[in-house]
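User: Hi! I have a protein structure encoded as tokens and I'd like to know what sequence might fold into it. I'm fairly new to this, so please keep things simple.
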């Protein structure tokens, strides 16, 4: 007998094809699916166990009623480019290449499964509390991450940090083992993709083998592409081609590929992304913090590319708040192009919901019957949404993108299960997670300092190289 939840009397932002908004609406959930969405009172019979949206046939489970008065009911956010993070705020003053060399790679080399488990729980805690229901997480120790995702209740697409063997990160064999062990865990909430760190530590052979393995397993690929100018120069020096051109040549690009960052795409590379229907994760706040530049988002959208949003990693962002990412995604392009018509709030909200879900092939990102029940309730009764003109959709979208932050999320429902209510996690002990993740960071950092690990990658090429 499936659990049923009736979310009643909220402002329901469906993000469906017709952009339907119910000012006074209900959402009925049965099991892991949304079964009906409509005006308040449409499913009153469901509360008594009678007809009103159930799957039919036999007795129905009692319904749990969630009062959404003064709350916005909307799809959960999809964080399309994500790294579990153990060292938020540590050594974050450096540009990308030096940061990877001195901080990121040494720390993830020193990870053990227990540290990765607590780091993932801490990362997913912050995300759930900010209204994120899906993460596309590239990291290491995937069995530990899968365990964390299963316990806390988040939807997670996991991939390894794969590089050529001499760089002492993960291998395709590691990723294959993780797929076998974890793909489909937690009733399908956990999936495993093949991850490629980035081209400066990957060969053509590795890229071709990555596509072959992804095709063999029937899964996707997650890769960093064209993130920095130094990466572009490195690729031209090593391969005689720009990064996305190499990815195209080796078969990496495709409908099942999430290409993260894509800051420095040429016109040719945008055309290659369009030809292959490759999915893009735009990560504006991370790109700004690392000094990597501003992606050509208007050109990508004009080319018809599907673009979602990601926070990247808390080490190079310091926040997993996707409301903040939405604001950056609008304001950055308006400022750089001197054009306030760019990044309109409704379009940005769709990037953080529908577009991210579509990129991963998930039936989420919209509140429509038949889709997965990944739903958040946002508290409208606070200063972030004041003043709020009644029944004004444009005003609502504006507050979501330009005023709100993750602290306004009251309730998070993933796969039809309430994982946060009243800003309290329901499945895990948050205080324990915070204590243990601090201990894990101290252990890993001590290991790094003892080992004095250095990254064996070529020196950063000059712009004139």
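Assistant: Happy to help. Inverse folding works backwards from shape to sequence: for each of the 465 positions I chose a residue that suits the local structure. Here it is:
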């Amino acid at each position: 007998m499936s659990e049923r939840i009736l979310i009643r009397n909220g402002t329901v932002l469906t993000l469906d094809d017709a952009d339907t908004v119910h000012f006074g609406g209900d959402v009925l959930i049965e099991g892991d699916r949304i079964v009906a969405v409509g005006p308040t009172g449409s499913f009153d019979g469901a509360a008594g166990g009678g007809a009103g949206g159930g799957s039919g046939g036999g007795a129905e489970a009692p319904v749990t009623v969630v009062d959404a008065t003064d709350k916005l009911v909307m799809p959960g956010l999809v964080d399309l480019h994500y790294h579990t993070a153990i060292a938020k705020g540590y050594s974050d003053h450096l540009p990308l290449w030096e940061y990877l060399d001195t901080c990121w790679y040494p720390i993830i080399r020193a990870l053990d499964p227990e540290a990765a488990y607590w780091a993932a729980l801490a990362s997913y805690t912050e995300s759930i509390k900010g209204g994120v229901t899906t993460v596309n997480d590239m990291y290491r120790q995937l069995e530990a991450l899968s365990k964390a995702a299963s316990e806390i209740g988040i939807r997670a697409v996991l991939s390894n940090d794969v590089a050529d063997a001499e760089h002492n990160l993960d291998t395709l064999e590691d990723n294959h083992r993780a797929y076998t062990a974890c793909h489909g865990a937690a009733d399908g909430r956990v999936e495993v993709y093949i991850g490629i760190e980035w081209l400066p530590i990957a060969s053509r052979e590795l890229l071709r083998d990555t596509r072959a393995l992804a095709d063999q397993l029937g899964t996707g690929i997650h890769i960093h592409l064209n993130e920095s100018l130094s990466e572009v120069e490195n690729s031209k020096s090593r391969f005689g081609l720009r990064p996305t051109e190499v990815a195209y040549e080796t078969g990496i690009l495709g409908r099942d590929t999430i290409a993260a960052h894509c800051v420095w795409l040429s016109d040719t590379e945008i055309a290659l992304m369009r030809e292959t229907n490759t999915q893009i994760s735009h990560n504006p706040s991370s790109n700004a913090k690392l000094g990597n530049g501003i992606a050509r988002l208007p050109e990508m959208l004009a080319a018809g590319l599907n673009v979602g949003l990601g926070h990247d990693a808390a080490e190079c962002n310091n926040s997993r708040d996707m409301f903040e990412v939405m604001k950056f995604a609008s304001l950055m392009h308006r400022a750089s192009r001197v054009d306030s018509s760019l990044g309109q709030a409704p379009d940005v909200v769709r990037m953080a919901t529908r577009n991210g879900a579509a990129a991963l092939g998930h039936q989420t990102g919209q509140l429509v019957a038949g889709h997965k029940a990944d739903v958040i309730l946002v508290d409208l009764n606070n200063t972030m949404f004041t003043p709020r003109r009644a029944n004004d959709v444009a005003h609502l979208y504006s507050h979501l993108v330009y005023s709100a932050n993750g602290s306004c999320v009251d309730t998070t429902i993933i796969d039809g299960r309430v994982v946060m209510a009243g800003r309290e996690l329901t499945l895990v002990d948050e205080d324990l997670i915070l204590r243990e993740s601090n201990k894990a960071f101290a252990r890993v950092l001590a290991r790094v300092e003892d080992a004095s690990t250095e990254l064996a990658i070529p020196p950063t090429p000059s712009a004139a190289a």
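A useful reference point when you look it over: The longest strand covers residues 4-13. Feel free to ask if any position seems puzzling.
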